[in-house]
Amino acid sequence: MRPEYYLLLSALLFTIGAVGVLVRRNAVVVFMCIELMLNAVNLTLVTFSRISGDLDGQVMALFVMVVAACEVVVGLAIITAIFRTRQSSSVDDANLLKY
């Protein structure tokens, strides 16, 4: 397969994720869309690494996966805190955690 197909797939996945972040109000869905965007970036990094023949893109993709795992842990903790106080996981309720 040609690398252009992987880049087109990556662009499509990133676009779907960006639209999901901008349109949806549920915090869990927003985090899934952010993860979709990060996976699209990983696919792009690995594709360019494959094209150039070195491992730099794959190493960067590994760091992106580590950051994504940390983002999920912190994000789910925040969503749980919002859900416990307001019984809703809406993004609009995020400012209600202030004292």
Automatic annotation (TrEMBL):
Subcellular location: Cell membrane; Membrane
Catalytic activity: a quinone + NADH + 5 H(+)(in) = a quinol + NAD(+) + 4 H(+)(out)
Record-stated family: Belongs to the complex I subunit 4L family.
Function according to Swiss-Prot or TrEMBL: NDH-1 shuttles electrons from NADH, via FMN and iron-sulfur (Fe-S) centers, to quinones in the respiratory chain. The immediate electron acceptor for the enzyme in this species is believed to be a menaquinone. Couples the redox reaction to proton translocation (for every two electrons transferred, four hydrogen ions are translocated across the cytoplasmic membrane), and thus conserves the redox energy in a proton gradient.
Full protein name: NADH-quinone oxidoreductase subunit K
Membrane topology according to the record: Multi-pass membrane protein
Keyword Oxidoreductase attached: yes
SUBUNIT field: NDH-1 is composed of 14 different subunits. Subunits NuoA, H, J, K, L, M, N constitute the membrane sector of the complex.
GO molecular function, a single term: NADH dehydrogenase (quinone) (non-electrogenic) activity
InterPro entries, per the entry: NADH_UbQ_OxRdtase_chain4L/K, NUOK/Mnh_C1-like
Spans traversing the lipid bilayer: 6-23, 28-48, 60-83
NCBIfam families, alphabetized: PRK05715.1-2 (NF004320), PRK05715.1-3 (NF004321), PRK05715.1-5 (NF004323)
Superkingdom of origin: Bacteria
EC number, as in UniProt: 7.1.1.-
Keywords in alphabetical order: Cell membrane, Membrane, NAD, Oxidoreductase, Quinone, Translocase, Transmembrane, Transmembrane helix, Transport
Broad class of enzyme this protein falls into: translocase
Keyword DNA repair part of the UniProt annotation: no
